[in-house]
User: Which sequence fits this backbone?
C-alpha cells in the first residue's frame, strides 16, 4: 500500500545576479537581474508502507529540496504531494504530527538546556500521553545507552550523543513516516552503527523511512529501494539489490606481477587504474570474458605475484548512472 505519492513535483528558486566584480555588484544595488534555478524537475514516485527508501544524488541534485517539500517546509512550484492522505504544505498543522523529521545539519534540540527538557517540550507540542512518553523515552534511551547524558546541557554533548538525542526527538510521538536528511553525517563508525540499528528496529515495527545520504554504507546496510536524482530529475528508481545489475556482471581485479604489465587486450577487459608498471586495477565484464579464461590468458602474459577479485564498488555504479544521464 502506497502511503506517499509524489506527482510531477517541481521546485524553482528565484535568485538575483550580483556579479563578481565591484562594478557589477554596485550596479546590482539599482538593477537586479532575476534568474530561475530549477532544483527539482517533474519528479514522480511513490513509497509503500514499511519501506526504507534512500534518495541519492551528487551535491546540488535536489535531495534536500525534495525532503523539504515532503515535510511541508517548502512550497512546491508545481506538482502534487500526498503523504498519508495529507498535503504537507496546505495541512501543515495536522500533518506535522504524522511525521518525524531529522536534518543532520540542523538541530531540533535547544542548545542551552538538557535534551530531556527538549523531549518534555515535544511531549507538550505533540500531545503525547504521559505513559506512552515514559515508555518510549525509557526504551530509546536504553537502545542508545545514553541515560547519563540526557540531563547535561545539549551544547556540552558530542556530535554522536546529540544525534542520538535528535533521533529520540524525531521519534517520541511515534510517527508512521520519518524523513532523515543526512542522518549519519560526521559520525564515527560506532555511532553510525547504533543509529542504523535503531532505524532498522523502528522499520521492523512498521515505521516508513525516507532518507538522503552520501554515505554508501547507510545505503548498503539500510536501504531497500533507491531513488537517484541528478540535476533535479529522477534517473533511477528500483530496488537497491538491482543496482549491481545495472553495470552488468562486472568485477574488479587488482593485480601485481613480477614483470611489467603491458596492455591486456582481451574483450570486456579494461585497465581502470595503473598504479605502477607492476600493479594495475582492471574492470572485467564477465559476460564477455569469463574469469577462468581471463586468468588463463593473463598467466601466460605476466608472472602473477598477487591477485584479488572484488565486486564493483557501489559508488562506481551510482556515478555511472549519473554519467549515463549526463550523456
Ligand atoms: N534557497 C535557495 N535559493 C536558491 N537556490 C537554492 C536554494 N536552496 C537550494 N538551491 C539550489 O538548488 C539546487 C539543489 O539544492 P539541494 O540543497 O536540494 O541539493 P542536495 O541534493 O541536497 O545537495 P547536497 O548533497 O549538496 O546537500 C542547488 O543548485 C542549490 O544551489
Assistant:
Amino acid at each position: 500500500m502506497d502511503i506517499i505519492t509524489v506527482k510531477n513535483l517541481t521546485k524553482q528558486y528565484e535568485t538575483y545576479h550580483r556579479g563578481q566584480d565591484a562594478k557589477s555588484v554596485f550596479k546590482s544595488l539599482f538593477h537586479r537581474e532575476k534568474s530561475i534555478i530549477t532544483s527539482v524537475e517533474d519528479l514522480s514516485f511513490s513509497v509503500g508502507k514499511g519501506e526504507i527508501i534512500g534518495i541519492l544524488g551528487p551535491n546540488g541534485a535536489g535531495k534536500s529540496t525534495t525532503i523539504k517539500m515532503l515535510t511541508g517546509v517548502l512550497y512546491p512550484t508545481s506538482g502534487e504531494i500526498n503523504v498519508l492522505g495529507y498535503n504537507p504544505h496546505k495541512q501543515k498543522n495536522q500533518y506535522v504530527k504524522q511525521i518525524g523529521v531529522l536534518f543532520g545539519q540542523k538541530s531540533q534540540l535547544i542548545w542551552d538546556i538538557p535534551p530531556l527538557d527538549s523531549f518534555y517540550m515535544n511531549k507538550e507540542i505533540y500531545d503525547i500521553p504521559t505513559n506512552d512518553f515514559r515508555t518510549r523515552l525509557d526504551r530509546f534511551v536504553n537502545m542508545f545507552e545514553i541515560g547519563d547524558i540526557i540531563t547535561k546541557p545539549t551544547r556540552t554533548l558530542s556530535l554522536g550523543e546529540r544525534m542520538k538525542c535528535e533521533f529520540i526527538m524525531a521519534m517520541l510521538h511515534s510517527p508512521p513516516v520519518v524523513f532523515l536528511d543526512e542522518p549519519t553525517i560526521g559520525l564515527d563508525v560506532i555511532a553510525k552503527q547504533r543509529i542504523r540499528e535503531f532505524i532498522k528496529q523502528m522499520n521492523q515495527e512498521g515505521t516508513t523511512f525516507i532518507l538522503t545520504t552520501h554515505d554508501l554504507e547507510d545505503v548498503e546496510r539500510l536501504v531497500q529501494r533507491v531513488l537517484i536524482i541528478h540535476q533535479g530529475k529522477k534517473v533511477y528508481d528500483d530496488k537497491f539489490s538491482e543496482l549491481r545489475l545495472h553495470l552488468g556482471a562486472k568485477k574488479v581485479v587488482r593485480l601485481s606481477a613480477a614483470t611489467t604489465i603491458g596492455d591486456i587486450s582481451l574483450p570486456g577487459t579494461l585497465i581502470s587504474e595503473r598504479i605502477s608498471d607492476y600493479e594495475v586495477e582492471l574492470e572485467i565484464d564477465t559476460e564477455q570474458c569469463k574469469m577462468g579464461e581471463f586468468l588463463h590468458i593473463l598467466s601466460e602474459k605476466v608472472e602473477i605475484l598477487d591477485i584479488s577479485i572484488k565486486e564493483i564498488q557501489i559508488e562506481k555504479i551510482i556515478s555511472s548512472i549519473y554519467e549515463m544521464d549526463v550523456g
